[in-house]
Every structure is written in C-alpha cells, then in structure tokens.
Amino acid sequence: MVKGISKDVVHKSELNAVKLNIKTKEELHKAAEEISESFKSHNYEVEEYLVQKFVKTKHEVLVGGFRDPSFGPMLMFGTGGKYVEVINDTSMKSAYLCEADIDDMINSTKMGELLKGVRGEAPANLPSLKKIIKSAAMMMIENKNIEEFDFNPLIIDEDGEIYAVDIRIKVN
Fold first, then answer.
1. What are 45-94's pLDDT values in tens digits?
2. In this structure, is the dihedral angle defined by the CA atoms of residues 103, 108, 114 and 118, taken in order, positive or negative?
3. Confidence of residue 145 (pLDDT cuts 50, 70, 90)
4. What is the DSSP letter of 128?
5. Angle 99-107/126-142 helices, nearest 10 degrees?
6. What is the rounded CA–CA span in Å between residue 87 and residue 106?
7. CA-CA distance, 18 to 146, in Å (whole number)?
8. What is the helix (H) or strand (E) element at residue 37, kind and residue range?
C-alpha cells in the first residue's frame, strides 16, 4: 500500500491518494505518479509517500480525541474508516475514564457488538483495543499541547490483531 502525504490533506481517499495491492517496483512508481497528479489537480503537493504493509481488513475502528472548552479532554470510539461520518456509530466520554467507561464506550456502538464476534466469528483482541483506548486517553491528559487526534482507521484483521494505519495528531 502507498499513500500520498500532505499536512493539508486529511481525507486521502477523497483524492485517490491511497493505492492498494502494489506488487512490483513499476506498480509503485505508477501509483506514486497517479497520486501526485491527483494532488496537483486539487492544488496540493505531495510532501512524502508512505509505503505500508497491506493488512487484510475485517473491521475498521476509530479512536479519536479533542479538547472541549467546557469538559476538557474527550475521547471517541466507534466505526472508523472512510465511512465514519456516514455510519455515525461513535461513543464519546471524558478522557478521565476507567475500565468500566471503556467497556461502555465499546458496548454502546454497533461496532462493539461486531468486535465481540457474531455468528461464529472469533472476537477481536478486545484487551489490546482497551489498552489502546486507555493509552490514548492518557496521551490527551498528559500532553496538554495535543488539541485533537485521530487513529482512523485502526484496522482489525481476521486474526483479531490491531494495526494503526492512519494517525493524525494536531498540536498547538
């Protein structure tokens, strides 16, 4: 997989800036050229390319956070990926959370139900997911210069393992 990166571009898929199934050096060069042309047609410039191992996706989740002027650091969990705004399956809590709050965040979403395993599917690695959520909350609490962040998507593969494939952190 190759992605075009620019600090001015948040949604790379809207610019066709994510290319999958790259198998040869020639395919990599062609994909990079296509990404560059797409950026140029939208008045952006590719600052760099990111080449990542392809992970076969079973689920895409979102873990994000921001600073609310009234409530302080907040955390969000839910269905992630490019359809996050369309599906609108998220849960939000203060970053000052405990294990029960994390369980509630996961359990209050449709994605949380899927992650438990349905119709004979193996569940996702929920202890690892909970650790990621708790660590993200601590990151917001301990680093007051972080205004917001998104881990979107966190890919959960068919073995239930979790991979961060796109991370955005905004600092002041």
1. 999 998 988 888 999 999 999 999 999 999 999 999 988 889 999 999 99
2. positive
3. very high
4. H
5. 120
6. 16
7. 26
8. helix 25-41
Q: What is the mean pLDDT of residues 135-149?
A: 98
**Residue type (1 letter), 102:** I
pTM higher than 0.90: no
Half-sphere exposure of 123 (CA within 13 A, CB side): 8
Yes or no: say if 95 and 134 are a contact pair by the CB < 8 Å rule. Answer: no
Chain centroid to Cα 142, Å, comes to: 21
Number of residues written out for the chain: 172
Tens of pLDDT, residue by residue over 31-43, are 999 999 999 999 9
**What is the rounded CA–CA span in Å between residue 13 and residue 8?**
14
Q: Which two tokens stand for residue 80?
A: 């992630």
Cis link prior to 153 (omega < 30° from 0)? yes
Dist. CA 7–CA 90, nearest whole Å: 25
